Amino acid sequence: MAGEAFDQATDRLVVDVWSDVMCPFCYMGDTLLAQALEKFPHASGVDVRYHSFLLMPQLSDDDAPVSPTDLLSAKHGLPREQAQAMNDQVTERARQIGLDYRLEQARAVGTRTAHQLSHFAATQGKQHEMVQRLFQAYFTEGLNVADHQVLGDLAADVGLDRDAALAALTSGQFADAVEADIEQARQYGIQGVPFFVFAGKYAVSGAQPVEAFLQALDTSWTETVGSPAAADSTSAGAGR
Fold it and tell me: Looking at the predicted structure, is the pLDDT value of residue 234 above 80?
C-alpha cells in the first residue's frame, strides 16, 4: 500500500484504521492496538486516525433495529442456534481482553450516521474517545447508534457539544467524508475490518495479538520516524 496515499508527518507515525461501529472484531482490534501502544516506548509520537467502513451496507439508518444473532443467521443462512453459538464464542474472546459484550441486547442498525459523528469528533480532537463510546454503546449498552438523540448524548458523554454534534448530523456535514472513506477502502481492496495501515505501507488485518501490533509499530516507526529522540520532542500521551 503506497505511503503517498496518506498524509504522513515526518516526525510522527500515523496509523489509519478502517472499522465499523457494530463490528465485534473492530472493538477488539482497537483495544489490542491500545494495549500495544501502552507498551510502545514512542507512543506519544503515534497518531491513530479512524476511517469509515460499513460491515452491513444493506442496512439503512432508518431500518428498524434487529438482533445481531438474527442478522448473522439470515446473512449466512445458518440455523439461529448456530449463529448464537458463534456470537457466544465472540463474546468469550472479547471477555479475555477485558471487554463486556452483551450481544443478546445489542441491536444492529445502519451506521452511516454514527460514522459521521466520528468524523465530527475528529475535528474536535476527540475521535478515539468517540469511537470507543460508540463501541460501548452498541456492544454493552444495547443502544440504537442510528438514533440522533442517542448519538447526541454519546457526544456529550465524551465532552463534545451536544447541539453542535446534532447540527452536524442533521445537516449531513460529514456524509461525504464517510463515503470517501468507504470508496478509499474499496480502492485499496479492503474487504473486511478492522484493517490497520501503519505509516501508509504496513497493513495488519483483524484483531491480531498485541505482539503483532507491536511489531508493526516497531517496524514502521524505525522506517518513518527513525530516532527515539523524535518521540521525545512530542507532547506526552499517544496521539489518539
Answer: no
